[in-house]
Every structure is written in C-alpha cells, then in structure tokens.
Specification:
The chain is α+β, with helices and mostly antiparallel strands. It is built from five helices and eight strands, in the order ββαβαβαββααββ. Bound molecules: iron/sulfur cluster (SF4) (2 copies). One iron/sulfur cluster (SF4) binds next to α1.
Length: 181
Amino acid sequence: MTSIRRDGEETRFLTHINDKCVGCGICTSICPTKSIKNGPILPIARGLVDMDYININKNSCCLCGLCASACPFDALQFEINDKNIKEIEEYPKWAKDAEIDTDVCVYCKACERACPQDAINVTRTLPKRENLVVGEIDVNQEKCINCKICEELCPGDAIKVKQTGLETYETVIMRINVFTV
Ligand code: SF4
Ligand code: SF4
C-alpha cells in the first residue's frame, strides 16, 4: 500500500489499496505529472512477482487527486483535510454516459458477465419452440436417388433414407427442427 501525505494550508492524503486495484491503468493515463507507472500486470496477477499493480512517484506527485477521482475500483483514495474527495461537492466529477444500441444488441449477456461493478442487467425472453420459424418440407421420391447426402448433412437428424425393399429405398423426413437465436 502506497500513501503520500502533505501538510500545509490543507492536508492532502493519497492512498493506493492494492487489494482493490486491478491494474487497469486508468490512473496511469490520467495523471498530469506522469507520476504513476504500471507494474508487470500479468506476472503480478498470477502471483509470480510480489509487487503492487502501480507505482506512484512520491517526489513528482502533486496530490491533485485526479487519479483517485477516476479509479473505478476505489483503489485510490484521496482526502483533503480528512474528507474523501468523492464526498466534496466542489470537486470535479467525471461525466459518464454508457449507452446500449438495442437495435444491434443480441442480448448475449457477455457484458453482464464481464462488468466488474454488476452494473448491467440483461433480461431476455426466448420464444416458445412452437413460435420459432415453421415451414414445410417434402421429398420428391421420383427424383430422389437415395444418395444419403441429405441424411449426412442434416444437423437435426431429420432425414432418414430407408431401404424398404430389396432394391427400393425411401427418403423420409423424420422431423423438422428450425432454431433461431
Ligand atoms: S485506476 Fe484504480 S484499479 Fe486501475 S490501475 Fe489505477 S488504482 Fe488500479
Ligand atoms: S494525485 Fe495527481 S499527481 Fe498524484 S498520482 Fe494522482 S493524478 Fe498523479
């Protein structure tokens, strides 16, 4: 855990809590004095090296608090006169606006599973089987040459080419399954 404290007209205090940090690097890119460096994220995450995800240069940090205001995981906390800046009304807040284009979304739920903040909730209703695409299919037994290609290709095992006599075959549609996502 890194912490920097400076006392003056006001007391400013920055703390990095590595247990909450995921090494996303948002703070690194936002810091105006380039005081934050990312560590080797993958080896740290795998426990191969014992280091914090980020390193803050205490000499160049000007204690502006921007990093703490931007950290989505509250892994950086910044206080002015013992008050967390997120509770200080005058302190700038980051404008954010996440939109979902429902014309394009296929409700796969990938975002819901991935969101570290559980901020996304996907509700989906699957249609009943009988409301899926329906149609008709038949086999012209006159044209069928019993090659069995259709039987091999059908993913639903819906077609059977049966031998009904010594030299007679019959192609039968067993069932039709048409799936939509
Ligand atoms: S923004 Fe927060 S979680 Fe991301 S690297 Fe910085 S301290 Fe860690
Ligand atoms: S307090 Fe400001 S200067 Fe210090 S590390 Fe955070 S963003 Fe950089």
